[in-house]
Amino acid sequence: MKNAWLYELRRADTNFTSYLFGTMHLVCEDRFTWPERLQEALKNCGVLYLETDLQNETEISWDFLSSFSNLRETLTNTQWQKLWELNETTLHYPKEELAHLHPFFILTQLQNQMFDCKVISPEEGLRAMAFQYGLEVRGLESLEAHLGTIGQIEKHEHMNLLQDLLENYDELKKLFTEMTDCYYNGDVDKMSDFFNDNSKLVLSKAAEEVFLIRRNKSWLPEIKKAAIKSPAFFAVGAAHLIGEHGLFLLLEKEGFTIRSI
């Protein structure tokens, strides 16, 4: 990953450069390296934008993650047994608590456990560098708005995603490894092909609409506004950049030139 996933963002009506970096929320520490020019790019900016603003939230409602119907009664015996096996080896929740967790909460934790390595968070690394260099750190969306996107997906869709993971866990773990390999290798085209070929297994149509397409559209005005005001550094999940609804194409339609560095 010498210069992979790091891009210059320019427009004809500005005389400065902003930057766009594709991240993953977690990566293997022994396989991830920062792009060579990333620190230089950060130092040239006055603000770092991450996906979600985690600094300025006070009272956030987590109600949608609680009081879920009994998973033990909703899952098949085989699915529940698989969930319990995974719980015993990775999550370690008491059986009664596990049965009432929201499927999204379980799904996220199980996906994070698919790494066979020590993991680190590039976003936290960027945040630390930003503070070191004196950059302001902002979010393209509030935590409340982010949690709201989760609530936009119907409960049965969340359940379907969890059931698919439990029924296809080994296959999905293999696909997850392929996806992370694309990222480590900086292969944008292969990453795009991966999502096109495996979209139904990776994300349902409803989840793709909420988590990727709608969020990209909602972020676009803020990115445009910030990128033509002063040098800014934007870091979002690599999946948000690619595809027909990705930020690459959306920003190009807004007159930006995007160049890998």
Automatic annotation (TrEMBL):
- UniProt xrefs under Pfam families: TraB_PrgY_gumN
Tell me the protein's name.
TraB/GumN family protein
Report the leader peptide range: none
Q: Which InterPro entries match?
A: TraB/PrgY/GumN_fam, YbaP-like
